[in-house]
Amino acid sequence: MSEKKYDFGLVGLGVMGRNFILNVSDNGFKAYGYDLDKEKVKALQKEGGDLDSVNATSDLKTFVSSLELPRKIMLLVPAGKIVDNVIESLLPVLDKGDLIIDGGNSLFTDTDRREAYLKDKGIHFFGAGVSGGAKGARKGPSIMPGGSREAYKEVKPIFEAVSAKYKGEPCVAYLGPKSAGNYVKMIHNGIEYGLMQLTSEIYDVLKKAGDLNNSELHTAFHSWNKGRLQSFLVEITAEILTKDDDQGSGQLVDKILDKAKQKGTGKWTSQNAMDLGIPIPSIDIAVSMRELSALKADRLIAEKLYGKLKPTTLSKEKLVTMAEEALYFSFIVTYAQGLHQLSEASEEYGYDLDLGTIAKIWRAGCIIRAGLLADITKAFQGNKQLSNLLLDPSFSKEIKETLDAARQLVSYGALNGIPLPGLSNSLTYFDAYTSGRLPLNLIQAQRDYFGSHTYERTDKDGIFHTEWEA
Predict the structure, then answer these.
(1) Helix residue spans in 163-229 (DSSP H)
(2) What CATH number does residue 77 fall under?
(3) What helix, strand, coil percent values describe the chain, rounded to 5?
(4) What is the span of the domain harbouring residue 120?
């Protein structure tokens, strides 16, 4: 082993960690890994090849002593108690001024707690959301760092080198103080939940209403990915629909059980939106649908009990056109909801987020990357005060052109028993958001009637209460 110290340390050599550290090494920085599992250490050493460029150990003291000062140590371990345990194991062997980076999907409040705890001990700490999966970690992820601006400068050259590039620009930027990075990653994942739910609904309605086979579905999604719906999720959907089942005949997607799992970030997005009082129904229902999917046994019983409508078939060509427009409409609305939550959270938590910068670093590398984000970036860079994407003139034009298709598809689904909750919630959100008057005046009257909760009036200022019972 070379006597020269390593530039960057990484704890956790699972698939994500191993790929990320190899990416660091590929970009000219000496990287050193640590994992208690000696087999993972050997796997990295074998794949990395040159131990002077990338190496690893299962001995903590060797790991820490091999790093240049100030040490830059990134954790890619499961969120929760494991992060705290790793931090506690590192503290006795670190020096003041060293930096710990949490690259996992930690809850943002945990990041705030850890930053305050380590600041008292003279250790820098910040959260950095990393999106792109294992392939992204290896070839270039989108990275969302937040915390101490001064501490970020220590790893900025490394992060900019390893991140994905969009037309030569690195998909990483300092986002804000405290837990800004982990918070932005949480919202990213919430949007991801929404887009995945919407994509699955369009797949479902095309199968049931148009009787499209997997080859025809592949053709539709593949063609969409060449147009305004160009995105990672649409691209991989097209690929998934061509994968043969190696256990037998047919396509693999048809053999996969319809019970979706989740790791919590979508749920956290919904919970936090409730705390902030921000409506994100397209994301909320995506979380609920994963929970509803888990009720497989109940769903089978209920289907026998109530039966299912036989959907009326539609022209394949007309349906594919309508589905593309409806999916584009609902994608815009879902991004609008997530970015609105970021706008409100920025003010509430003092993040001082720049939504244009966030959209910019999502354009490549991450799971929600899409051609649409280039226009979203322009919208927020052109109007720093823009709170909701639906208020941008260029997007209002796109919405108006696709709104009718969304209405037709939601109506068709309702009449034919095909659940389209993500699409219908996107439409309902739009209709409510664009309504100058909602029926909540009646709710305020009801609240005042049974609980004396008071109300405001449209014709005069002040707070009012009425004795409703004669």
Answers:
(1) 180-210, 214-224
(2) 3.40.50.720
(3) 55, 10, 35
(4) 8-178
The two tokens of residue 57 are 């150990």
Q: Are residues 84 and 110 in the same domain?
A: yes
**192, 235, 324, 325: which one is catalytic?**
192
pLDDT digits (tens, 9 = 90+) for 346-361: 999 999 999 999 999 9
Tell whether 2 is covered by a domain. no
The burial of 210, by beta-carbon neighbours within 10 Å (0-12 exposed, 13-18 middle, 19 or more buried), is given as buried
| pLDDT tens, residue by residue, 287-329 | 999 999 999 999 999 999 999 899 888 899 999 999 999 999 9
Which residue in 72, 178, 185, 208 is the catalytic one?
A: 185
In a domain, 1, yes or no: no
CA-wise closest residue to 237 among 220, 257, 262: 220
Q: Contact at 8 Å (CB) between 453 and 442?
A: no
Virtual torsion, Cα 100, 186, 360, 280, nearest 10 deg: -160
Counting the structural domains of the chain, the total is 3
Closest CA to 155 of 66, 63, 72: 72
Is 317 catalytic? The answer is: no
Residue 348 appears among annotated catalytic residues: no
Whole-prediction pTM: 0.94
DSSP state of 455: B
The domain boundary residue, chosen from 146, 178, 210: 178
